[in-house]
Write a structure and sequence with these properties.
about 150 residues, alpha/beta, six-stranded mixed beta sheet, 8 strands
Length: about 150
Amino acid sequence: EVKGVKATGILSFHDNEKGVKRGLNTLYLIEVEGIRILHCGDLGQDQLENSQLEEIGEVDILMIPVGGFFTIDAKAAVGIVNQVEPKIVIPMHYKVANLTIEQLEGVDKFLKEFGEEDVASQDKLTIKQKDLTIEEAGAKVVVMKI
């Protein structure tokens, strides 16, 4: 914890076999100005364990891989969003233009699976704690412009 920013690492796995195939992963829970952000890194588990969910607690913003290929795919990502129940979801680790990793899926597959196909990408996201107190039905997806 430094200058009002607290970061906590939570053990997770880079595969569905408790790290046997691809090793460990760390979920980073970052707390700043009353906002709780969970960055999932290269998460490979199709679902979080109860002990992980207890450690994570409430999440305002979830940054989650969605492209598959050594991380979770779109369907698993939606499942984890449903487990965590964040207010905002930021997809990451997906196919973008000029990327040479052909096996990655694009963000569009996650958006379709999530039921939010018409999401415009944004250059910047500014969130204040008061913005997160408004109750909305389900999570809002924010795609960052690459």
